[in-house]
Amino acid sequence: MRRVEMRDSLRIEEELHVLYNSIQEGIEVAGKDGTIQYVNPYFSRLTGISPHERIGKNIFELSPEGALARVLRTHEPIYAHRSTIEECATNVIANAYPIIIEGNIEAGLVVFKPLTDASKLSDELEVYKQRIQVLSNRINQMAPSIYSFDDILGSHPDFVFVRNKARRAAETNTPVMIRGESGSGKELFAHAIHSGSLLSHNPFMKIDCADLPESLLESALLGYEKNSQGNSSDQKLGKLECASGGTLFLDEIGLLNEHMQNKLLNILQKKKFQPLNGLRTIELDVRIISATNRDLKHMVENGEFSEDLYHLLNGVDIPIPPLRKHKEDALTYAQNFIYKANRKLGKNVIGITTQAEQLLLDYHWPGNIRELKNVIEMAMDSVEGDMLNIKDFASLIEVVNKTEEIHFREPMALDQLEKKMIRLALERYGNSVEGKKRAAGVLKISLATLYNKLKTLEDNA
C-alpha cells in the first residue's frame, strides 16, 4: 500500500507541476507553517524574483497581510485581494485557496496578476476561481481504496469461496456486481477488489444511490459546468470523471430510477458522456463495481430494472453470504472490533467470556456484520474489566428476548429490530438532548435522523 500511495503522490505532484508552469499568472505555494515551497516561472517574470531567492523563506514574515498568509491563518478562500509584493514593489490582485487533504490544511496557494490588469481580471476572476476549485476538488477526491483482501476476515468455507472469487475478479477489468444483505460487507469487498487490481494506483470513487436524492444523483455522476448564461461560478467534477483510470463503485444500484438506469446504460454503451450544462465530451475510462441488497434478477423479470443494464453490470457475480450463514466467523469479527475499540477508547479488553461468546453464536444477526460491530461498540462503551461478559451485552439480550432466555428462534422484521435498538439506546442514555446525542452516536446515525425516526415511531404508535 505504501508503494501505491507513493505512486499516487508522485503522479499528482507531476500533474500539478505541469499545470502550474503552464498558467500565465503568478503562482506561489506555501506550506501550513508559511514556508514557501514553490513559485512558477510567471511569478519570476512578473516580480524579477528567482525561485532561489523566494523558496524557503516564510510568507508570514515577507507578507503577513497578503492573501497567502491570510488563507493559511483562516483556512478559507480569498478572492480579489489587493496587496503589494514588497521585494519588487509590485501591486497585485490575487485569489488564494487553502489546500485541504482529508480534512486537514496542508498548504496554501495564491494566483495573482498585476493590478494594472485589474480591468481584465474583473471578467476573469470567476474563471480562476473555478480553475483552482476544480483542481482542489480533484486532489481531494482522488482517494485510493482504504481496504484490501487482508481486511476481509473469515474462515467459513462458503465465505472463503466468495472471497477467492472476488480475488480472481480483481485481476480483470470486468464489471463486478456484489450482492448481499445490508451490513454484510459489500463496500469492503468493493474496496478490496480495487486494491487487488491493476487499477489500484488510480482513484476509487463511490456513489451511494441510497443517500442521494434523485435530483442530485445525475449531477453527482456526471458533474456540472457553468450554465449557458455564464453567470454561475459553480462547477463540479462528476464521479465518472474523477474516477478516470480507476474504479467507480455504485452502491445500492437497485435504487436507480428508470431515468438514471437509461442514462447509465447509454454512457456504458457509448463509453462517453457530457457534464450537465457542459459542452465537453469525456471518454469513459472506469471499471464499474456495483452493489445491491435487492434481487435485481427478479426486478428485471418484473420490468423494474433494465435488462440491458443488468447484463452490462453483472460481469462477475459476487454473492456475499449473510452472517447467519457463517456465524462461526462472528467471534473473529468481534475480536477485531474489540481491538479497534481498544485503540479508540484507550481500553485494554482482551476478549469475551465463554457465555458471552455463546450469546453471539446463538444470535441470528439480521443486521449482519454491521449490527455485530454496533453491539461490540456498545459493550465496549460500558465494560469495566478486561473481558466482555454477558452483562455487557444487555442490549443484545433484550433484543433476543425480553425474558432472560437468550435464544432467538422467530424471524423479526428489520424495522422492528431498529425500533428495539432505538428504544434500548434511549433507555441507556436517557431522553435528554445530551442522552439523545449519545444514543445517536452509538447507533451511528445523526441526531436529526434520530429525531425523524422517533417522530415516525410516535406517528405509528
UniProtKB/TrEMBL annotation:
<dbReference type="InterPro" id="IPR013767">
    <property type="entry name" value="PAS_fold"/>
</dbReference>
<dbReference type="InterPro" id="IPR009057">
    <property type="entry name" value="Homeodomain-like_sf"/>
</dbReference>
<dbReference type="InterPro" id="IPR000014">
    <property type="entry name" value="PAS"/>
</dbReference>
<dbReference type="InterPro" id="IPR025944">
    <property type="entry name" value="Sigma_54_int_dom_CS"/>
</dbReference>
<dbReference type="InterPro" id="IPR002197">
    <property type="entry name" value="HTH_Fis"/>
</dbReference>
<dbReference type="InterPro" id="IPR035965">
    <property type="entry name" value="PAS-like_dom_sf"/>
</dbReference>
<dbReference type="Pfam" id="PF00158">
    <property type="entry name" value="Sigma54_activat"/>
</dbReference>
<keyword id="KW-0804">Transcription</keyword>
<dbReference type="InterPro" id="IPR058031">
    <property type="entry name" value="AAA_lid_NorR"/>
</dbReference>
<feature type="domain" description="PAS">
    <location>
        <begin position="12"/>
        <end position="62"/>
    </location>
</feature>
<keyword id="KW-0547">Nucleotide-binding</keyword>
<dbReference type="Pfam" id="PF00989">
    <property type="entry name" value="PAS"/>
</dbReference>
<dbReference type="Pfam" id="PF25601">
    <property type="entry name" value="AAA_lid_14"/>
</dbReference>
<dbReference type="GO" id="GO:0005524">
    <property type="term" value="F:ATP binding"/>
</dbReference>
<dbReference type="InterPro" id="IPR002078">
    <property type="entry name" value="Sigma_54_int"/>
</dbReference>
<dbReference type="InterPro" id="IPR003593">
    <property type="entry name" value="AAA+_ATPase"/>
</dbReference>
<keyword id="KW-0067">ATP-binding</keyword>
<dbReference type="GO" id="GO:0043565">
    <property type="term" value="F:sequence-specific DNA binding"/>
</dbReference>
<dbReference type="Pfam" id="PF02954">
    <property type="entry name" value="HTH_8"/>
</dbReference>
<dbReference type="GO" id="GO:0006355">
    <property type="term" value="P:regulation of DNA-templated transcription"/>
</dbReference>
<protein>
    <submittedName>
        <fullName>PAS domain S-box</fullName>
    </submittedName>
</protein>
<dbReference type="InterPro" id="IPR025943">
    <property type="entry name" value="Sigma_54_int_dom_ATP-bd_2"/>
</dbReference>
<keyword id="KW-0238">DNA-binding</keyword>
<dbReference type="InterPro" id="IPR027417">
    <property type="entry name" value="P-loop_NTPase"/>
</dbReference>
<dbReference type="InterPro" id="IPR025662">
    <property type="entry name" value="Sigma_54_int_dom_ATP-bd_1"/>
</dbReference>
<keyword id="KW-0805">Transcription regulation</keyword>
<feature type="domain" description="Sigma-54 factor interaction">
    <location>
        <begin position="152"/>
        <end position="381"/>
    </location>
</feature>
